[in-house]
Design brief:
With 505 residues, the chain is an alpha+beta fold. The chain has two domains: 230 residues, Fumarate Reductase Cytochrome B subunit; 201 residues, Oxidoreductase, molybdopterin-binding domain (Sulfite Oxidase, Chain A, domain 2), CATH 3.90.420.10. The protein has 15 helices and twelve strands. Strands 4-3-12-7-8 form a five-stranded mixed β-sheet. Strands 5, 6, 9, 10 and 11 form a five-stranded antiparallel β-sheet that branches. A hairpin with a 7-residue loop joins strand 3 and strand 4. Helix 8 crosses helix 9. The longest helix has 29 residues. Pfam families: Ni_hydr_CYTB (PF01292), Oxidored_molyb (PF00174). It is a multi-pass membrane protein. It is found in: Cell membrane. Its main location: membrane.
């Protein structure tokens, strides 16, 4: 048996192959929901550095939504495919968790057993030797077997770069795209170029990782396969086992690819059931990793007026006559007739607040970056009243109230089963309610809120993605159990797009 390829290493290598496929395919599903990449955080039309769509963006705000830009990928390519970003995000979260566990165990064992020397160079001679190997490969040759101990210098540099540079950078940029991180540690996110900088770097690392995997698998079969395959499959240095190792390797690759594709079709066969499963296994990690992070946008100094975006995307258009004649009439009367219903069935009394009533409450003013779960972002100064202060006007919280439901004058863009559209709503828990940056805003950048961004008042929940931030707010109510509303998943985007109730990442 070859001591360079113990059983634990071969098992982790296989597991890594399976998990990387889940990460890449779910990542492509997420990218297809907004197939554009920017370095600018305002994602202004025409400023993309890369796009995977021929569709050009209009320059005017509020006429084009991010859902209009969404593309559908085949389940053969992405996980799960067919415009299911919610499930794609859940699979990405589960894949990331398992990949991190597997990777951490791999690195620990690598150093504990001394096998780190097999991939980490210990001499500067690795660079001229790597150059020599590269020239041989470019000439469609292959270095002699003596260059491999068990890898040649070029492979060693490649492994070291992927494991200790590219993979950590993917982790760091992935974390930077989480609202919980951004609202708690804004300087960290800004250091990476903001949300769009992190997203673009993450994409570049993904491309590097993909190319490395293709090249690595190809070299296994093309360069001294009679030695490589027995080692990788059986931990044996016996070339006589090459045919057996080749057969097992090909069968294993086919089986893994079939497994990836099967995950897509199993997910699409019953999307709500898959959402329940994925949320159940990922929510504990989400709560432990991000639940303790509280936003502090009011006190942060990383983002200033200079960072305010010139352009702001939207997801959803203002209510039409088919959705809410009431909202249109209030808009045309400059919101003089707007009333915010505060209360719910759990209490005996309720309030009907005017816009002036909301403005009379202590103003909460801060600069924050909004992110949509599809990937776009924009930075604005928001002003409004804390949701907790509004509900306090009702008196003590009902003893059995566990959540707050916020409902819009607008309707859902599409229901999961294509039934008639229902009012858009979101539910937040008490922990999120008590955060300082859970605010009903009425002003953006010192001006009244624009119609396409939620006028006259919209919810801001800075620790979460934008799908929790209801626009054109109609009512705020105490509730005991969100499972009896809508499809019972805690919000319109949870119901229709199968997002997670906890939108912190």
């Amino acid at each position: 048996m070859d001591p360079d390829f113990p059983l634990w290493l071969r098992a982790m290598h296989l597991m890594n192959f399976v998990l990387i496929g889940i990460l890449l395919r779910s990542g492509w599903e997420m990218l297809s929901s907004l197939p554009r990449l920017w370095w600018r955080n305002d994602c202004a039309p025409g400023t993309e550095w890369l796009r995977f769509t021929k569709r050009k963006l209009p320059k005017e705000e509020g006429v084009y939504t991010s859902l209009m830009d969404e593309r559908s990928l085949s389940p053969l390519i992405s996980l799960p495919g067919k415009k299911n970003i919610g499930l794609g995000r859940h699979w990405h979260g589960l894949g990331t968790t398992l990949w991190l566990i597997n990777g951490l165990a791999y690195v620990i064992l690598l150093f504990a057993t001394g096998l780190w020397r097999r991939i980490i160079p210990t001499s500067w001679d690795v660079f001229p030797q790597a150059w020599e190997s590269l020239t041989i490969y470019l000439g469609f040759g292959k270095p002699s077997i003596e260059h491999f101990q068990p890898y040649d210098a070029l492979q060693m540099l490649g492994y070291t770069t992927i494991i200790f540079v590219v993979a950590p950078l993917m982790i760091l940029t992935g974390l930077a795209m989480a609202p919980a991180i951004r609202s708690r540690f804004p300087r960290y996110v800004k250091m990476l170029g903001g949300h769009q900088g992190a997203r673009s770097i993450h994409f570049i690392c993904m491309v590097i990782m993909t190319l490395f995997i293709i090249m690595h698998v190809s070299l296994v079969f093309l360069v001294h396969a009679e030695h490589n395959l027995p080692k990788m499959m059986f931990g044996s240095d016996d070339p006589a086992r090459y045919a057996q190792a080749f057969t097992v390797a090909v069968a294993m690759i086919i089986a893994v690819i079939a497994f990836w594709i099967a995950l897509s079709y199993i997910s699409l066969a019953d999307r709500p059931r898959m959402q329940r499963f994925l949320v159940a296994v990922t929510e504990p990690v989400r709560r432990v990793a991000f639940g303790w992070m509280k936003p502090r946008n009011r006190n942060q100094t990383a983002y200033t007026e200079k960072d305010i975006s010139e352009f702001h995307w939207t997801n959803g258009l203002p209510p039409t006559a088919d959705e809410s004649v009431e909202w249109l009439e209030m808009r045309d009367n400059d919101w003089a007739d707007w009333r915010l219903h505060v209360g719910g069935d759990m209490i005996d009394s309720s309030l009907e607040l005017t816009l002036d009533d909301v403005k009379a409450l202590p103003a909460h003013d801060y600069i924050a970056t909004h992110t949509c779960m599809q990937g776009w972002s924009a930075t604005s100064r928001w002003t409004g009243a804390r949701l907790e202060d509004i509900l306090a006007l009702l008196g003590p919280r009902p003893a059995t109230a566990k959540y707050v439901m916020i409902t819009s004058h607008g309707l859902a863009q599409e229901m999961i089963d294509h039934r008639p559209r229902e009012p858009f709503y979101a539910v937040i828990d008490l922990e999120t309610l008590h955060e300082d940056d859970t605010v009903l805003t009425y002003s953006r950048n010192g001006q009244p809120l624009e119609s396409h961004l939620g006028a006259p008042a919209r919810l801001r929940v800075e620790s979460n993605h934008g799908y929790k931030m209801v626009k054109w707010v109609k009512s705020i109510e105490w509730i005991e159990d969100y499972s009896v509303y809508g499809d019972g998943r805690g919000g319109t985007r949870e119901d229709s797009a199968l997002q997670a109730f906890n939108g912190r990442i």
